[in-house]
DNA sequence: AAAGGTATTGAAAACGATTTCAGCTTCTGA
DNA sequence: TCAGAAGCTGAAATCGTTTTCAATACCTTT
């Protein structure tokens, strides 16, 4: 503690400059001096002061990640991918958890703008597109995962929500269902909107009329899903399947069905989105759309790092494929 | 981007000193000047440079958290508690994920010793006690959660693993079980050892002889649990219940039982530890020991911040209570 | 042995904020 | 009207590195 480069220099009979060179593996220093310096560093347990280094070099080698909720496996899978890539390139990672609160998200963004990070990644962001674009236009390295943004220098990795939703709904139709509920998330979320579009497309492909009363908002969380499903049931609507815009809301549906002794998939078949960690442990196991979350994180981190390093031709947006995982909750011959 | 305090100063016709004072809410500046400066700051969208500030102040207002795996809800629950306290006190939080690898953990520790954080919190650490003590003795603010360490200035919050395990096993005994398997984690983990001790104590209290062959190591993860349980079964041992040192290994047991059509809790009753997010969604739901994870994180963060602020009398170690949650996996009258 | 390179090293400036200390105003009271 | 205090502001030092540029040491060649 409190040992500085000059202390090392003095003890090793060299200048701070030389110590700095040793620290940064500058091959110009004579092997003999290098060894002497290293020995002193070891002896004193000297560790360079990050702030001084950052100030001089005008970079921090860290990436800031803003996620909606660190407890959601969709987010942590992505974060894992980011971390793996980042660490491999000697970057550190700061994680900020906004608790799905837009104001908190804005606040973190402000915090990160003090150059304590070299670049920012948004995961499941609630921020209006324009604010993200502004950020990029002010010269910050910014990337966003999950949501499609193709403007300014905003880096982006996402999956095709429309066709994924379409695939899920067509799967349900293939199982003989025609009255299919769509449980949407926040009304303003682009994800929700795209999944709705896919839902409608799938119905269209099979000439099933779209019934707006079968679309209900569950706010992307478990209780929201429970309540949305309850509303549908209490309205006395008839339907035999549910496509839920994420797995968490599906959990709410499970709970409701459990209470009211409604059989899954017998009376209601269900397909979710996200392949949450719990979904395969449910009984019946939950069919869901799996996004390559880890890969998405890894890929965006790569883009970001390359772009921070000044590489000119970094492809700005990439689309990865998601896939439908069919489990018990949507297949008639249960187990 | 690239706007410095002098730019603001120039435009506001004041010195950098005054701008700095405004930034730091120093009440000494005249309201009129303050407003003028604030206006320029707003106009220029000036954000102070973190590294410069950190360097001068010799602190960063951030806490480093090293966790074993960001995907484990035990860890994220704790992290949530830490974050809540930290953010309330204007601290940022850096999370490092070691993937349960001791070498990676050491590497992160080295990274964080560059004063890029003001204090360090270890969650589910694999580090030998002595190394943690060394850290504290070198003057760093360090805290550890989950594992009892009562030396040097190491801050600590943990629960009583021995009595928690004892409670779980006594619950099983109360359900009529006498041949109870103990699934342990890493052999060297203090947690495992304490839980084993509680297991043995519980047996002792009820005059049930301890059979070492009923203790098997599952490395704290799902496949480890599966394999450990398989080994026990293949040895042809007889037992009617399992106490698993964490929920993840219990998942492995569920899987094995599912494959081999072994009824839970009819043929094997199970109790785990951690109250993992999935445990309540399992069929049958998993009985488990719940630790007040959020509170543990919150409390340790509080200790750490107080100690970093130079408060002398911060109680160094706290013990919180865990509680047994009885669900279906350990009760004979299933459902 | 001198000239000209090349290798190796160090002195000092720079990064962008905060903080110390001194100085200038302005006010108060006699 | 003036001394002294209080209020407000700014010049310059400082934090601990890296980087630039110049200087020195050491070779090689002739």
UniProtKB/TrEMBL annotation, chains A, B:
PANTHER family in the record: HTH-TYPE TRANSCRIPTIONAL REGULATOR GALS, LACI-RELATED TRANSCRIPTIONAL REPRESSOR
Lineage: Bacteria, Bacillati, Bacillota, Bacilli, Bacillales
UniProt KW keywords: DNA-binding, Transcription, Transcription regulation
A molecular-function term among this protein's GO annotations: transcription cis-regulatory region binding
Pfam families the UniProt entry points to: LacI, Peripla_BP_3
Tree of life domain: Bacteria
Limits of the HTH lacI-type domain: 3-57
Presence of the UniProt keyword Lipid metabolism in the record: no
Protein name per the record: LacI family transcriptional regulator
């Amino acid at each position: 503690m409190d040992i500085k480069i000059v202390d090392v220099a003095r003890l090793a009979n060299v200048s701070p400059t030389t110590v700095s060179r040793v620290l940064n593996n500058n091959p110009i220093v004579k092997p003999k001096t290098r060894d002497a310096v290293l020995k002193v560093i070891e002896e004193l347990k000297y560790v360079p002061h990050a702030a001084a280094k950052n100030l001089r070099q005008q970079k921090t080698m860290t990436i800031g990640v803003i996620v909606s909720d660190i407890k959601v496996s969709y987010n942590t899978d992505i974060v894992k991918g980011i971390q793996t890539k980042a660490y491999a390139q000697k970057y550190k990672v700061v994680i900020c958890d906004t608790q799905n609160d837009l104001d908190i998200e804005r606040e973190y963004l402000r915090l990160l703008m003090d150059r304590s990070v070299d670049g920012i990644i948004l995961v499941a962001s609630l921020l209006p597109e324009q604010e993200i674009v502004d950020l990029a236009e002010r010269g910050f390295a910014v990337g966003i995962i999950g949501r499609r943004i193709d403007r300014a220098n905003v880096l982006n990795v996402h999956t095709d929500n429309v066709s994924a939703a379409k695939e899920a709904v067509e799967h349900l139709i293939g199982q003989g269902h025609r009255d299919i509920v769509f449980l949407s998330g926040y009304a303003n979320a682009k994800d929700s909107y795209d999944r709705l579009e896919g839902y409608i497309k799938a119905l269209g492909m099979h000439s099933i009329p779209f019934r707006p009363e079968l679309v209900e908002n569950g706010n992307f969380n478990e209780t929201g899903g429970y309540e949305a499903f309850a509303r549908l049931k209490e309205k006395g609507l008839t339907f035999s399947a549910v496509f839920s815009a994420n797995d968490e809301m599906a959990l709410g549906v499970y709970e409701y069905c459990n209470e009211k002794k409604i059989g899954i998939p017998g009376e209601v078949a269900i397909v979710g989105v996200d392949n949450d960690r719990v979904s395969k442990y449910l009984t019946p196991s939950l069919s869901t759309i799996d996004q390559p979350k880890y890969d998405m994180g890894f890929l965006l981190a790569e883009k970001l790092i390359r772009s921070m390093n000044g590489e000119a031709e970094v492809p700005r947006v990439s689309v990865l494929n998601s896939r439908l995982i069919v489990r018990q909750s949507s297949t008639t011959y249960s187990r």
